[in-house]
Here is the input.
Amino acid sequence: MKLALILTISVPLVASFQTGGISSQRRPATTTRLMSSTSSTTRHDFIVSSAATIIAGCVLSPQHAAARGRATLEQSYERYVPRIKAGGEFYGRDLKNLVGANDWSGIKKALADVPERTKEDLMKSDAGVAARARQAGGFSDARVLTAADLYAGSFSDNSITPKTKKMKAAIATVRTSVEGMQSVARQALGEEGGGGLFGLGKSKPNEVELEKKLREYYVAGGNAWNEYILAANDDLALKFDRLPFIK
Here is the structure.
């Protein structure tokens, strides 16, 4: 089933789906098309390739907390922006395909975070860091959203700037959307009850309801991500490349 979803900034989510584009590099992308055919492709490779190096060295490291303030902007850009860009690409391509195909298991895996350390991990030479890192999804909190939060903090010094506040607020909305998609996927897989989320008591939501809610969360997350990118690019020094929007 082919659907086109609108990523609309600053207006309520519309009920009908259309297509469109962007008219300026300073404006967020306005259209995301969900395709029923999944990419042949890159989802698995994206999730596992270089995960041990990237996440073990960055995501699982407590040194993240030190990367804050305008004095560290260049270092933060080099460290976090590659992960932010990769996350946006994954959201607008791989996750879009999964959502369009209602691939519940794939969605769950794509959004999965780094698992908790086990006793078995403690027996490994690296305490299981590499193996746990490989299990993080392509748009997991650890892989993408933590980096986005930390990059936002680099635009503040002793006090939090309006830019940092905007960026962090946008990522908070993305997190809410991710959590919603995770919940819908678990419900579809029979791992979570449907009561509360859809106001249907303890009855299990049907496939149509699940699809509708999934797409609403996906669109909301894409809108918020583009708001983050818009704020991040605003007044950014010319020596830095602008971050791309989700289209």
About this structure: The beta strands are 3-6, 31-34.
